[in-house]
Amino acid sequence: MNEPKQLVEVRRDGAVGVVRMVNHKSRNSLSNEMRVQLASAFAEVAQDDDVRAVYLTGAGSAFCAGGDLRYLKTLSGPWAAHRRFRRLGEWLLPLIRMAKPVVVGVNGVAVGGGMGLAFAGDLIVAADSAKFMAGFFRVGVCPDVATMYTLPRLVGMARAKQLLFGNATWNAQDALAAGLVAQVVADDKLDAVCMARAHELANGPAGVIGLAKLIMARSFETGLDEMFLYEGLGQALAMSGAEFREGLDALLEKRPARFTDKRNL
Question: What residues pair up with 56 in beta bridges, in sequence order?
Fold first, then answer.
């Protein structure tokens, strides 16, 4: 397949980094080149100190159509698959662990690994047209792109199995009822709503939100004593920072907090 040179657009809107997949022809499938460009995009927004929140979405009729089936057919041997997933981890794990809040706007279909990409964010907003399509077992493969890690944490094990084992498709309202998405909006409002959510997070104590995100990610594998220790260490770090000082001063002075004011950071 001859793909367009630019498959991922990256731009900054104030303190929000916008990452948009733009390969209309393949419905933003996860080809090798798409993965390479996503890796670069996530690294760019992660390393930009002026980016305090991230918005990830797709363009066209699909958020992401999952794996490129022709590409998968040529790389199905054990070593090829192993190398592919090593490379996958190089950009997916940094996205999941990014110490910044990530808003995901699901436009149209999210299929297989495309679902996994959506689940890697922190807050998912679905357009009316959104569909979450499992599809893995139709092809005879295990769920991937961290889906078996993220989905049970988002909706519980029983619902995760219903979606995956049943090769099911959840529409936007199904996903809302399951607690998978935070909001369902009209297709033509998706960008505006997601950008507003992202700016709200960026205008808040984004550094402390990122810290809490890293600690919460350990909650399912960690005992109470260890989590309590992490909370204490996290709080000690948070309360030594400028965001805490600004938030506390704002409450005492009965004014809005200015977390993004460079004079306060």
Answer: 19, 104
For the chain, how many residues are written? 265
User: CA-CA distance, 149 to 165, in Å (whole number)?
Assistant: 15
Q: What are phi and psi of 60, to 5 degrees?
A: 90, -150
For the chain, the C-alpha Rg in angstroms (whole number) is 19
Residue ranges of domains in the chain, CATH in brackets: 8-202 (3.90.226.10), 205-264 (1.10.12.10)
Task: Give the pLDDT of residue 72.
Answer: 64
Name the strand (E) or helix (H) holding 113.
helix 113-119
Residue 230: exposure state from Cβ atoms within 10 A (0-12, 13-18, ≥19):
middle
Q: What is the pLDDT of residues 175-208, one digit of tens each?
A: 999 999 999 999 999 999 999 999 999 999 999 9
DSSP state of 21: E
Residues 86-106 have pLDDT tens digits of: 778 888 999 999 999 999 999
